[in-house]
Each structure stands twice: as structure tokens, then as C-alpha cells.
Amino acid sequence: MSTSQSEPVLELRIHGVNNTPPHEMLDLPPGDVELAFGDDLGSFWHPTPDAVDRGRIDRVHGETSRGVVDPDEPPRGRVPHGIHRETYSWGGMVRTAPPESGLGGIVLAVLARAAWTLLLPFSIANAAIWAWQLPSPTAGRRIRLGAAVVRTACLTLTLVLALSLASVAIDLFALQCFRGGQTVCAPLGDAGATFAAWKDERRVALFSLLPVLALVAVFLVARLSILRYNVAGRILGGAGTDHGERPLLAEPRFWLTRTETDRLATLHLAAGIATVALVTSFAFASDTTGVTPFLTGASVLVVVVCAALVATTDSTPYELTRADRRIPGALLAAAAVLYAAPAVVLGFHGDIRLEPRIMGQASDRILLVVVAAALLLIVVAWALPARERERRAWRGRGAAVFLTLGLAIELLLGSLLNVLAGDWLNGPAAANRLDQPYPDCSGEDCLPGEMTIGPFSAPFLGLTLLAIAVAAVVVGAMMIRPRDVGARAPHSASATDAASARAALTELLGREIAQKRALAARLHLAEPMVGALAVAFFAATVLAVALAAYPGLLGAVLPPGTAAAVATAFARWIDASLIVWVVIGLAVTAGLVLGGRRSSRPLALVWDLACFLPRAGHPFGAPCYAERAVPEVARRVRWWLDLPPVDRDGTPEPRSVILAAHSMGAVVAVAALYALRNDPAWASYRDRIALLTFGVQLRPFFGRFFPEVLGPGVIGAVPCGRPSPWARDPWARADLGSTASTVPGGFPASAWVSLWRLTDYLGFPARSIGSVGNDRDRYTEEIDLSGYVGVVDTHRWYSRTPAYHRALDELRQRLGAASGR
After folding, report:
1. Where is this region: Disordered (predicted)?
2. What's residue 665's pLDDT?
3. pTM for this structure?
4. pLDDT at 617
5. Domain spans in the chain, listed from the N-terminal domain onward
6. Nearest CA-CA partner of 468 in 543, 537, 569, 402
7. What is the spatial distance between Cα 448 and Cα 426, in angstroms, rounded to a whole number?
8. Angle (nearest 5°) at CA 669 between 667 and 675
9. CATH 3.90.1720 describes domain 3-89+625-818
10. What is the pLDDT of residues 139-155, one digit of tens each?
11. What backbone phi and psi angles, to 5 degrees, belong to 35?
């Protein structure tokens, strides 16, 4: 047995969303850590033997190579006797991009970051299915309506992507750039001369391949990620022996979602291709109301895909029947035929009379129908909130909020794509000319004109910018509200350390501590802030659809003079907003091109929160890193506990594990414990596992956003109410009870200590805000004295505080007592 395995206790550290490197998690120089096990996605690291020897504290003298130390202020990276320390690095699962080596590597990295950006709204919408009321562990109910609404709404996002790509490829490139046998778009130059000589129908057939290929690429990414991430079946094995009532995290099927995600992905691809076929089929319409077999077939196929999603019997992953496996493949084959047939006819038949105006407006008209359907589904989700509203975010309307955010971001990306493409193809013409009427172009009399992006994108961008401004005012009012959370800070620590340097420094830095506490209290208001943004997005989308569908709406509801003034002001605002959005789009593009690995995905916090959940709602979201991280942590814990006992002076000492998890790492750790609870040897494991968390969002964020997954009945916490955005202390009265909820089958750890502090902008207590009967939460020092100068810490470096080392020692003793040592 190696020296690294000669200690009885494994302290396994798990980082959070910032993807802290292994050497920083171990608080050592890079050269003092080495790989123990793993690959580029997930890996386990531990200190080198030399680093451990240098950091050990002599049991008698309390000395290290650095000299005599204060046991309350241990040196960085010191590993106590009896503990083998490791860290699990899972950041490669959520922030990976191809290495930027050489021109080819840079191009691949840029494309990867652009792809992650396009997938962001899908991941957010996927969270909606977990925010709805899920099957209860006690009643075992299947919430079919919620699954049907959410999955169908998620499908509309895929259709929006297909229509946005089709609008650029077919309308802008295939039709508007080539009029009257000449190239109108100056940026294409001589490269467009070949296509200018083609007939419109042949260009439509060719360029319609672009959105289809993009959808296939997204589908393949989803399939490949399933192969690399969904490994629970190989690691966790069978269902185990934990029968009876249990939370979803303890259900083996929760992590075995490969077949269900594959089924959903196939259905989404079929609907996306059918939508492109629907757009292409408008080439055969003799007028705006013309209907052909192609149009009918594509429309029916999209409806059938929706019916297949509605027919899903549960809102969580389930065992697929034979019909469930065959239907998606058959629908995909039908979609391919419906697309290929009109494309082939357009490409090789010479007698088609294509009307560019009707053809160019097809994607815009279909987009309005799809967005209107999505809004209707969101209204249904809002009107049917889940039960126990006070315990749920947004009063049980989390599904509607997540769907709104996903739809709005997808529409923003699609509109920006159209604006940027139109502005580039427009050449020297200003971006604010993109919202002009569609060019009336037919036959040989067609004259060159400016690009247009249809009646929806420009008003939507203008209204969305206005909505964001209004939401910013509301959020700003929340932010400037004076905050004082000092009443929740324990005062006993100050009295104990009255004569210490920490107490003196606390008094000296009192102003900075108060400021960071106030800032953290403001940032803790994520729930009402996101709610305000979702309402603003929804209102902007509704108005944009109404104005695009009914151009004379203002004149119908307002007096003529007022309507004219409003229309003029709104037109100017749209012009200005288009310029703003073009600047934003260029900035985003530049960020994708120039960004490094840490910026490989936008909105890291939102991304990592959403990507914890399996893709049961939208299959094209980013891979669920928990499907691999959770089984890997469970396997590592099981491996350690199955090692032979350590011989201590002739007495065998059983192995034990302390999972030390930071921020999002705590979510991974809790899920891993529940996954391990199904192991046949669980009875021999439970009393040898303890949990140490710090800077966590389990109770107020995950517990309220996804109650059935990580609510109070799963983590054994006091139910948490919503924060008050206008109170001086938003969370002062958030407890909804005085006792913690009961965990079915018991929480899968013999002990749990959670560290928190008021200066942490992402950290909360894990059991309750109150202190009575709260044996889990421990307040942590807010000043880090381990460096040259003391600093007020926020979300990081809990492991450097005396509270961390006291908790580690306490859990170690409790594990020893539980195992009879």
C-alpha cells in the first residue's frame, strides 16, 4: 500500500463553479500536486509525498519547516496527521474548449465557444422541467401536464433556432443578395457571381442545407456528449438495496438518462428539419394562402412531434418502451424525406415560378406562429403553479420563469444573428435600415436595394432593450436599498478573540466588512432580480409579436395623432437600439474570438447551475456534468471505503471519508452521497462518511428552484421562504418553520457541518438562518490571516480559516466515535 493510502481518513475536496485548479484547491504550488486518477474531464489530485511531509505539524511540538505555528491559524496546504487529502477537478466538464495551439486550434476554439453560446438558452429552458412539481416520493404521482407543457415549450426553442438560421441562409443569402441576375451584397464580391447566374429556386435548394446541417451538428454534439458524460450505468451499476421512499437523487434512473435524452434529441431534430422543409415548401405556394402537399406534410409532422412529447408519461427520465424507441427514428426519416423532396425539385426542375417576396417572408410568418405558441405555453405554466408555493421560487412558477428566459435569450441570439448578417451584407448602409419593408422584387425588373430582416427582429430588439432598461431600474432600486445584516452575525467569536490580532484587524476593517456584507445581501436577491427580468422579457416578446402580426396596432388602439407620435418615437428608438445591439453583437463576437479558456462559456454561474440537471426537458442543452461527476465521486468514495483498514499499533482502523465541498461542489457531493446510498454495501458505508460544505446555495437557491431534487426534504433543512427585496436584511425572516424536514431513509452521511459568512455573495446557511437547534451551520471568520496581510474574504478560501480546521477535526472525531475508534 502506498504512503498516500496509509491514513485512515480521506478528505476529498470538490471545487465550485469557478473551476478552481487542483493546486489551488489543495492550497499548494502547482509543482506540489500530482494526478491520482482521471482524465481531461474529471480527475483526482493529491499532494506529492514531499509536500505532505513539509506541511505536517509535529504532534508534540507543533512545528513545521516554517517554524512554530498557531494551531488556530495553520499554514496553507498543511495536511493534518491521519488524513489523506485529495481534490476532485470536474471543471473540464463545463468549461472545455479545444486547445488554442496554432491557427487550426484557435479556429476550433472560437467555433466551440460560439456553439456553447448558442446552447445556453436550451440549458436554461431544460431547468423548467425540474422546477415544475415532480412526482412525489410519498404519493408517486406523475405530473403529466407539466411535462407536456415544458417539453413542448422547449421544442419551440429548437424551432426558433431553425427559423433564425433559415431566415439568414434562405432569405438574406439565397434571395435578397441576388436580384435580377446580379449580386446586391457588396461584401460577397466576385465570390457571389456564380450564384447570381443561378435561378432563385436552385439557390434556395442549396442554401437551405445550411440550417439543416447546423441542426445536425447540434444533434451530433448532444449525442457525443451522451457518450462521454452519461457513464452512470458503468460506474453505479444496478439499483442496489435502497428500496421504499427516497428522493429523486437516490433513484438510479435519475442518472441513467442516455436513452431518454437520445429520444428527445431525435424528436427535436425531426421537428427542426421539418420546419426548414416547411419554409422551403413556400416556394411552391402560388400566393400567401397557397397550400401544397409539402406544406401540409411538414406542418403535420411538427404537430406529430409535439404529440410524441405530450405522450411522455412522466416529467423525469423513465424506462423507454419499444414504441418509444422506434417512433423518433421514424419521424426523423419522414422529416428528411419532406425536406429532400422539395429541395430536389427546386434544384433540378426548371419550371418552378418562385415568388421571392412570399418565399422570403415564410420564415418570418412561421416564426410568429412558433413564438405565439411558446408564449401561450408559458402562460399555461404560469397559470398552473406547483403546490407549496411559499417553499418554491417565484411562488411555484419557476417553470414559466425558466421558459421565458430561455425563449427570450434564444430570440435575442436569433435576432442578433439576423441583424449582424444583414448589416454585413448591407455594406455601407446603416444598420438602422434593416427594418425597412421587404424589397418588392420580381422578374427582370428587380432593382438592387437594401437588406431587410423581417417585421419581428428589429422591433423585438428595440422592445427588449427597453424592457431591460425598465428591469434595470427595478433591480437598481433593489441594489441601492440600504442593507444591514449584522444582526445575524454571531458576536461570541469577537469576545473570545478580544485580545487577538484577528479582533484588532476586524475592528480596523470594520467598514470594509460592512460594505462587503451589504453587497453580498444585495447579490443574494437573485430570485426577485431574475423574476423582474423574466417579466420584462415576456412583455417585450408579447409586444413584438403583436406589432409584427398587426402593423396597424398602434393606430387601432390610440388616437391618430398620438399613434403617429408614438410610432415616430418608437421608430427612432428601434433605429438607436439596432445600433446598440450591433455593437453588443460585435462585442460578443470579439469576446468569442479573443476570450481564453475561462471565458469559453458565457454567464458561467447561470450555465453551471442549469447544467447540473439531466436533459429531460431540452436535449440540446450543454451536457449535464453531474451525470459524470456524481458517479465519479461516488466511485472514489466507495474505492476508499473498500480499502483494507489501516493498522494503528496492531489495531485495525476502518476507513472513512470527509467530503469537503465548496459552492456547486456541495451539490455534486450531496448527489454523490444519494447515488452511493443505492450501493449494496451502503449499510457498512453510512457511518463512515461525513460532509463538510462551505459557501453553498443548497437551501435558498436549489432548495427553492428545484424542491423535489434538493429541497428541505432532501437535505434535511428548515423550509426556506423567499427573500424580501425591500427589507434591510432580505433573509432575516426566511425560515418557514422551526424544525428541519425529514429525509426519507435518512440523510446519507453520519455528520454534516456547513460553513458560511455574511460577506459571501453566494454562500448561505445550509440548515436554517436561526441558531436554535442548528447543529449544522457554523459561522466562519471573514478575515484571512494566512497571507502577508489580512484581507476580508468573500466566497473563496474557506479552507484557510480556523473554522474549517475545527470543523474538519470535529468531523474526524465524530467519524471515529461512530465507527468505534
Report:
1. 62-82
2. 92
3. 0.90
4. 87
5. 3-89+625-818, 102-133+143-470+575-610
6. 537
7. 11
8. 105
9. no
10. 444 467 778 889 999 99
11. -75, 130
